[in-house]
Design brief:
Layout: H1 10-32, H2 38-58, H3 69-90, H4 98-129, H5 146-158, H6 165-188, H7 197-216, H8 230-257
Helix pairs in contact: 1-2, 1-4, 1-6, 2-3, 2-4, 3-4, 5-6, 5-8, 6-8, 7-8
């Protein structure tokens, strides 16, 4: 079995942590208008992700993170705070905008801690239901990585044309994080809604438009480097991300109902 099909596996946990930390370490400064360096951001993101994931995974049960989602979030926040103050000794520039950086670290840490707990509890439920099976079938949940790609593709298309590597990287990261949100919306929406193309399109378009406009604001400092309005580009990227994710969710839901997954 591909270990990435199991969302609570070590490889999946590391991937979740790296995507989450890279996403917010890069998006956070765009939100708050902080001028920082690519090298520092990448080092912070990778270091924080690996340290937090290894620490929380090794102490997962002693910390009781398997008991409740809130516990996972709280330990995610606590570990992120420790990582931030440790990082300040390595990167003194983090102390120039303490409140903003602390918010970025705490949000990223809370999200990653919450996902670790949620993925464990959800996978554990699947294992319990299929404990007599020779091989665990994760059904549509095995495709949890696809929305990351949907978001990246959607935003790269929406923001065409572009030239600067920094903008391209921010577009990719923004798209990947948008894909996470779209995946959550699709996952928690009732399956009966997925049988109506019209309802699905209305829901995906509305949510994608709202989120897309917000993500477009992240590129407000690059207007001279883009052709077209950044809000419009963000809206298009958001809607495409949600449409692709919801339509794929519909396809997988129908396959699962027919026993084809």
């Amino acid at each position: 079995m591909n270990s990435f099909q199991q969302r609570s596996s070590w490889p999946s946990s590391l991937f979740t942590g790296i995507i989450g930390w890279i996403g917010w370490i890069f998006i956070g400064p765009l939100i708050f208008g902080i001028d920082t360096s690519f090298t520092m951001q990448l080092t912070l993101a990778l270091g924080a992700a690996i340290i937090q994931i290894v620490l929380l995974r090794l102490l997962f049960f002693p910390l009781r993170m398997h008991r409740h989602l809130i516990i996972g979030i709280l330990w995610g926040i606590a570990s992120a705070a420790g990582i931030y103050y440790t990082a300040c000794s390595i990167f003194p520039e983090l102390q120039q905008h303490v409140l903003y950086w602390l918010l970025i670290f705490l949000y990223a840490g809370a999200a990653v801690g919450g996902f670790l707990t949620y993925f464990y509890r959800d996978d554990n439920k699947i294992h319990t239901e299929q404990q007599h099976n020779e091989q665990i079938n994760y059904g549509r949940d095995a495709h949890w990585l696809e929305p990351f790609a949907f978001g990246v593709i959607a935003y790269l298309l929406a923001f065409l044309p572009y030239t600067q590597p920094q903008i391209i990287l921010n577009i990719i990261i923004t798209g990947a994080v948008s894909g996470i949100a779209a995946a959550g919306a699709s996952h928690f929406s009732p399956d009966k809604w997925k049988h109506s193309y019209l309802l699905l399109i209305i829901l995906a378009t509305g949510l994608g438009l709202a989120q897309g406009l917000l993500t477009g604001l992240l590129f407000r400092n690059y207007p001279v480097d883009m052709t077209g309005n950044y809000l419009l580009k963000g809206a298009i990227g958001g809607m495409l991300t949600y449409l692709l994710t919801f339509l794929r969710g519909r396809q997988l839901a129908i396959k699962e109902e027919k026993g084809l997954l």
